[in-house]
Write a structure and sequence with these properties.
heterodimer, A: alpha+beta, Ubiquitin-like (UB roll), DNA polymerase, domain 1, 2 domains, 5 helices, about 35% helix, B: alpha+beta, Uridine Diphospho-n-acetylenolpyruvylglucosamine Reductase, domain 3, Enolase-like, domain 1, five-stranded antiparallel beta sheet, four-stranded antiparallel beta sheet, 11 helices, globular
Chain lengths: ~160, ~290
């Protein structure tokens, strides 16, 4: 069955015709064309579909599209507002914290949410925050370094 | 996947009404349910989203101390709540063990109970603290021990149409402490091969006045290790006592062998985790008693 959903995605009010069974991931990718959010395992293990709902990272594959109305959804597309990379994205570029890139949108959003809540996380806190984002290229070291660098720069200012 | 409708009740009464027939499935965090629906392991004709019911989505510190946690409150919110973290640290720490940050931001305390996985990490600490479950159905509300909710893997004592609405943590008792420890091959994003929650209350003289030892992942439901508990009562805490309690708890376990570990291995883990958890309770108590 189809249903009309009104929801806030990346700060914009969107009205979307969706299947009642759609997940938030399907809503974003297939109905709204926001393909920066990736589909990996589709059961909450890999974190490639991480988006922020009301500022908190969640797996979009484990949220129904019909749960979105009334919530504020942010995807990777909104992280580089105005064409300027977010400090987390800038650091991932500088440190080479990305290999094939498939996990990168989820990593960037998990890191953003961590730093919003805790601007100066310890290394264990960084590793805990991205434990739900699997990088099958296994490039975790440089990802952790990149996030730590953002924290260090914030301290310097 | 079967098509379903979606309802968003805003009161306990409306939620109970929405659960009126066998088509209905309660949705809290969805981290179990949505995967189960998509994989065809569960069916639903109506999804009843409980996250818009205020009583199910709030945590209240009670006037007589004690905390009432709405069943749909996320594990992150449970772990971050000041009264939970201060008075029931084992509950807060257990909530942080489940899945990832993404999962903890969605998965609810009530869902971890109602999914009734023998490995549910949030449950042993709740049983250790003597948590009560408030349940609502067409005939009104009732309250029962959280421990009494479990009937088997994936099966609870909830009657048809009933929903878990809140979990009540009774006031913490003086000179008591609880801990939950689990063993996983990986530090994060893993399911317990075995888990042990322990709770101790000491008498003024320092002997064990009351004890609870709760085992996870080593039986069809969370198990009380009653012979270990009996052996602890009246004794002064010591490494030898905790070693013996671990040995007895291993005997109380009813593990199966599966891909995560053999039954023998699980019993060995129970012995070690019980000993360590009891020692951890004592360490917490020593710290607290110095402060008194």
């Amino acid at each position: 069955m189809k249903t009309l959903l009104m929801c806030t995605v990346n700060g914009e009010e969107r009205t979307v015709l969706a299947d009642t069974r759609d997940t938030l991931l399907e809503l974003l990718r297939d109905r709204l064309g926001l393909t920066g959010t990736k589909e990996g395992c589709s059961n909450g293990n890999c974190g490639t579909c991480t988006v922020l709902v009301d500022g908190e990272p969640v797996c979009a594959c484990l949220v129904l599209a019909q749960e979105a109305p009334g919530r504020d959804v942010m995807t990777i597309e909104a992280l580089s507002a105005g064409g300027t990379l977010h400090p987390v994205q800038q650091a991932l570029v500088e440190f080479g914290g990305t290999q094939c890139g498939f996990c990168t949108p989820g990593i960037a959003l998990s890191a953003k949410a961590l730093l919003d809540r805790n601007p100066h996380p310890s290394e264990p806190e960084i590793r805990h925050a991205i434990a739900g984002n699997l990088c099958r290229c296994t490039g975790y070291g440089k990802i952790v370094d990149a996030i730590a660098a953002v924290a260090a720069r914030t301290q310097g200012r | 996947m079967q098509d379903f409708s979606y309802e968003r009740p805003d009161s306990v009464e409306a939620a109970v009404a929405a659960m009126r027939d066998g088509e209905a499935r309660a949705l809290a965090g969805g981290t179990d349910l949505i995967a189960q629906l998509r994989e065809g392991r569960r069916r639903a004709g109506r999804i009843v989203d409980l996250k818009w019911v205020p009583a199910l989505t709030s945590i209240a510190a009670l006037p007589d101390s004690g905390v009432l946690i709405g069943a749909a409150v996320s594990l992150s919110a449970v772990a971050q709540h000041a009264a939970v973290a201060a008075d029931y640290p084992a509950v807060a720490q257990s909530a942080r063990l489940i899945g990832s940050v993404q999962i903890q931001n969605r998965a609810s305390l009530g869902g971890n109970i109602c999914n009734a996985a023998p490995s549910a990490d949030a449950v042993p600490a709740l049983i250790c603290h003597g948590a009560r479950a408030r349940v609502a159905g067409a005939d009104g509300q009732r309250e029962m021990a959280v421990e009494a909710l479990f009937e088997g893997p994936g099966r609870t004592a909830l009657e048809f149409g009933e929903i878990l609405i809140s979990i009540l943590l009774p006031p913490p008792e003086p000179r008591s402490a609880a801990t939950y420890l689990r063993f996983t091959p990986r530090r994060e994003m893993d399911i317990a091969v075995a888990g042990v929650g322990t709770w101790l209350r000491l008498a003024v003289g320092g002997a064990v006045a009351a004890a609870r030892v709760v085992l996870a992942s080593v039986g069809p439901v969370p198990l009380r290790a009653l012979s270990a508990e009996t052996a602890l009562i009246g004794e002064k805490p010591s490494p030898a006592l905790f070693q013996e309690a671990g040995r007895l708890a291993a005997g109380d376990a009813r593990p199966i062998s599966d891909t995560r570990g053999s039954a023998d291995y699980r019993r060995s883990l129970v012995a070690v985790l019980t000993r360590r958890a009891l020692a951890d309770c004592c360490a917490r108590l020593d710290g607290r008693m110095e402060a008194l």
